[in-house]
Amino acid sequence: MSYQDYEIVIGLEVHCELKTESKIFCGCTTKFGGDPNTHCCPICTGMPGTLPVLNENVVEYAVRAGLATNCKIAEFSKQDRKNYFYPDLPKAYQVSQFDLPLCYEGEVEIEVNGEVKKVGLTRIHIEEDAGKLLHEAGEGSLVDYNRCGVPLIEIVTEPDMRSPEEVGIFMQKLRSILLYSDVSDCKMNEGSLRCDVNLSVRKKGSTEFGTRTEMKNINSFNFAVKAAEYEAKRQIKTIESGGTIVQETRRWDDVKGVTVSMRSKEEAHDYRYFPEPDLMPIITPKEKIEEIRKSLPEMPDLRKVRYISEYGISPKDADLIVASRNMADYFETAAKASKNAKTVSNWIITEIFSKLNEDQKEEGSIPFKPELLAELVNLIEEDIISNSIGKKVFAQMWETGKSPNTIVEEEGLKQISDDGALIDMAKEVISSNEKVVADYLSGKEQAVQSLMGQMMKKTKGQANPKKVIDILKDILNQMK
User: Fold this and answer.
1) CA dist list (Å): 432 to 36, 235, 427, 469, 477
2) Is 285 in the same domain as 359?
3) Is 117 helix (H, G, I), strand (E, B) or coil?
4) What average pLDDT does this structure show over 464-480?
């Protein structure tokens, strides 16, 4: 039996750190980094006699995320103690939510192979993060409690995904929504967004789920896809060889490209949940929910539709631009100030994305304002500079932050459009390229491109390309 005879079933548990300035139950900073155990206090390290106080902003951010993902919002919810023993959890329990989460029954639309698919969300609940274990070779393990108490939302999906590809698409879409909602910076390299991949396989046509495994704390879209691909193949191979899938927690080893068993998987009842006695229930009035709903920005799906109709850009380009709220805002400001919004999108996708990737910077790190990108586009649209000169100007803008008009003036880069000067140069080029001219006159019209190249070289790229080609053809056609 082949892999095609099986269906892959995947659900995710996504942990997202909220961008509050202080932790969920105390006043310690949530700032990333810092020396170990310097961003903690008796409350977040679980000292006896301390009492937590819920950060109100945590609730508001969670509701924003819930509304942005089409969830229902509970007017009454509570917090619970999730009990387990692990060195990075100083209280030996984690404050989370069990039976009454803040958000529930949501959905996120993704596009797979040109078709829209809905991925259900079971719930979004708030909880506190644990610390971080640091494993020192030959010296045992140390623990850093700086992350203890950093506020999280956990987003639990239904088992609706059917391929590793869908995992990557969903995670990117969810990150985009969370960024638009302004609840998190979603920096996966810093652990602000990470996911657990729950995966099982079953024979096609079966309605019963197979035994699932969970791959923990994956902090990259690419790793999530690779881990799902490997685990699906491993499970199918095990079943086909007569083995049994064990419900367990595994981790992704990117160096070896495999998933590795960590421990047998605990069931929910093993955590011995009970209501958190030190915290009051969370009451979220309808009026507050509606106030938060009205404060949400236009979401990426709606922006995509509007950009296609309003600015005439392609669905593919719109997808790339709206993936980041920063980039979408940048594009829209530049588009409104430019003479050609489609050209603006081309510059963003081909040049700006390339430079950000090259410099390993994020979308909000463009070193010049969108109005200056519009200014550059307008210079090209008005034939003041050529597209090739535009790229040179862009490179200097990126390095210096100067306006394109300033760079063009300082460097003397204005396009040569004087007919008389171009005609004289064209005659010189034609007279010194007899073979190319002969090819053109014999019917090889593409030969004019060689002459065009000579003209652009002669003018250091500053000649108006359209005028150059017209002048060359006029002179050559008179020679026939």
Assistant:
1) 72, 71, 9, 17, 17
2) no
3) strand
4) 76
pLDDT tens for 231-241 read 999 999 999 99
Instruction: With beta carbons less than 8 A apart as the criterion, state whether 472 and 459 touch.
Output: no
Per-residue pLDDT tens over the stretch 117-138: 999 999 999 999 999 888 777 7
Distance of CA 381 to the CA centre of its chain: 31
In which region does residue 33 sit, left (phi positive, over 0), alpha (psi from -120 to 50) or beta (all else)?
left
The answer to whether 223 and 167 have CB atoms below 8 angstroms apart is no
Model pTM score = 0.84
Q: Under 8 Å CB-to-CB from 32, ≥6 apart: which residues? A: 187, 190, 192
Residue 47: pLDDT over 80 = yes
Contact 82, 96 (CB under 8 A): yes
**Residue tagged 């259900």 (tokens):** 120
Least confident span in 125-129, 163-167, 466-470: 466-470
297-310 pLDDT, tens per residue?
Answer: 999 999 999 999 99
Q: Give the residue among 126, 120, 118, 122 at the shortest CA–CA distance from 79.
A: 126
Q: How many CA atoms lie within 13 A of 479 on its CB side?
A: 17
Which stretches of 241-274 are DSSP H helices? Answer: none
Give the residue numbers spanning the domain of 406: 298-411
Q: Which amino acid is residue 218, in one-letter code?
A: I
Residues 144 and 16 in one domain: yes
Any residues with CB less than 8 A from the CB of 144 and at least 6 apart, and which? 36, 37, 131, 132, 133, 134
| Angle at CA of residue 23, ends 142 and 362, nearest 5° | 85
Collapsing DSSP to helix, strand or coil, 263 comes out as strand
Same domain, 117 and 196: yes
Same domain, 144 and 185: yes
- Domain stops at, among 263, 290, 317: 290
Per-residue confidence (pLDDT) for residue 417, from 0 to 100: 63
Positive or negative, the CA dihedral 188, 189, 191, 194 is: positive
Is residue 265 predicted with pLDDT exceeding 70?
A: no
In this prediction, residues 221-247 reach a mean pLDDT of 94
